[in-house]
Design a protein that fits this description.
- Helix 5 (about 80-100) runs antiparallel to helix 7.
- The chain contains 11 helices and no strands.
- It has helices at about 10-25, 35-40, 45-50, 55-75, 80-100, 100-110, 120-135, 145-165, 175-190, 205-220, 225-240.
- It has 2 domains: about 1-50, Arc Repressor Mutant, subunit A, CATH 1.10.10.60; about 65-255, Tetracycline Repressor, domain 2 (Orthogonal Bundle), CATH 1.10.357.
- With about 260 residues, it is mostly helical.
- This is TetR/AcrR family transcriptional regulator.
- It holds the Pfam family TetR_N.
- InterPro entries: Homeodomain-like_sf (IPR009057), HTH-type_TetR-like_transc_reg (IPR050109), HTH_TetR (IPR001647), Tet_transcr_reg_TetR-rel_C_sf (IPR036271).
- It comes from Streptomyces griseicoloratus.
Length: about 260
């Protein structure tokens, strides 16, 4: 790692660039106060004056590094097919991790009890909104939050696996992993499109899918029902959804907040 070349840049920018370069080259352990100070050509107190502490610096490095990926996710057409958006979002997530392995590890494996990077929280909200649209389209067979959690945790596991394989020169051994896991996960949370199965025993499944959709739509605010009626209906919809093995909470809210 060499000292940041653009000496005319403001100290804050030099510090950020130095930290980003150190992270990319050596991982989180390489981003020390001494190393950043030397690379940016500043005193340690300059770092603390601009960012408070090293965690504040890492937060800003993460925000900047994640910005273009997050913007691309947020720019997805909300009038498009939400299921197709889930697939695109998964592929974008994996591609981002492989292109930025050190930053990805910082974002998703850095131990911060009770905390998360703000940008990963924003990305999860984007995922929740897409899954919500899937539910409203009658394509979700479980709750919004459980489905989003399954998709996110599986995608993160795949990405970390591929990052490790890439570092070992074995990425080609896993060329089908991401697609196979993606389709397995989506197959477990999605209902078939436009398919009505008349076989005995399938009625509960269709009722569960529609219960999930109605619970999701109710969060827009159903003015014709009282608070108590909405709570009761929400509880009944939860029970219908659970009848197909779905999570008891079919949305992101509890039954009393339908």
């Amino acid at each position: 790692m060499t000292t940041v070349e653009t000496k005319t840049a403001q100290p804050r920018e030099r510090i950020l660039q130095a930290a980003a370069d150190l992270l990319a080259e050596g991982g989180r352990e390489a981003v020390s106060t001494r190393a950043v100070s030397a690379a940016a050509g500043v005193q340690a107190q300059t770092i603390y004056r601009h960012f408070g502490d090293m965690q504040g610096l890492l937060d800003e490095v993460a925000r900047r590094g994640y910005a273009s990926y997050l913007a691309a996710k947020q720019a997805q057409d909300e009038d498009g097919d939400p299921v197709a958006q889930l697939r695109r979002g998964w592929d974008m997530h994996v591609a981002f991790g492989l292109a930025n392995p050190a930053l990805y590890r910082l974002l998703y494996t850095e131990p911060r009890p009770g905390q998360q990077f703000a940008v990963t929280g924003e990305a999860h909200q984007v995922l929740l909104r897409i899954v919500e649209r899937v539910a409203r389209a009658g394509r979700l067979r479980t709750g919004v939050e459980p489905a989003a959690t399954m998709i996110h945790s599986s995608g993160m596991g795949v990405t970390l696996t591929l990052i490790a394989a890439q570092a070992d020169g074995r990425l080609s051994h896993y060329e089908d992993l991401s697609e196979n896991v993606r389709e397995a996960v989506l197959g477990s949370v999605l209902a078939p499109a436009g398919h009505v199965d008349a076989r005995p025993g399938t009625g509960a499944h269709h009722a569960a899918v529609h219960a999930v959709a109605l619970k999701s739509l109710m969060r827009d605010g159903e003015r014709s029902l009282t608070f108590g009626e909405r709570a009761l209906l929400g509880e009944l919809l939860d029970r219908i959804a659970a009848g197909d093995g779905a999570d008891a909470d079919v949305g992101t809210d509890g039954p009393g907040r339908a």
